[in-house]
Predict the structure.
Amino acid sequence: MADAGRSLRTFYLILGVVAVVGIALIVRAATRRPLAPLVMAECGGPPLGGVPAAGHALGPDSAPVRITEYADFECPTCARFAIVTMPDVMQRLIPTGKLRWEFFDFPLDQHANSPLAHVAAACASAQGRFWEMEYTLYDHQDAWFADKNPERKFLDYGRQVGLDTDSLRACMDERRPWPQIEANRCSGEKLAVQGTPTFYVNGREIPFTPAYDDFARIVDSAAAAAAPRGPARKAGK
């Protein structure tokens, strides 16, 4: 009987803890302030919010070749590129020192969940995990693009890539990176970016989505063109 009494007390103790946690979660949800909508502003004039465009970069700033990618997290072609081609670029081209790669946000108007996905990736960047989050968002694109509350999945992806999820949630709730995302998008609009992904090599647009071998040739050619040339030799010398 004594064992039965202890078991019953343990059961009620666990039940009480579960109830307290449940009430706390309900209170937190009820008192959580409404989140600011992610509305894309009109571009033009000085940088929005005084924040200049700046991409998420890989590779040295001194690299002779700079590739700029404008991408949208709901874009299926962007997802294929990130999953199939970008890992090779990161492992085989970036380490050569010839290439600096820059990812610029370009969320499209027709993609309802893309703005928050860009916020989640930028918040991951604040913890040094942008590229891990970028890959994970693209790899799970089918799971969240039509979700009515994608934040839950984004937090879970953040946990998977090793983020502090409390910090991630606070960053997403406060929309901290949104001015930067808008500045990046507006820089693409100034270049007349029409769709995603769009790539520029040293400022010149590539009119297609290259495979890895295409990028390798492009980087080698652009690096050779950017290499300093020695003085011309005089005739007869």
The CA atoms of residues 69 and 75 lie 13 Å apart. The longest strand covers residues 65-71.
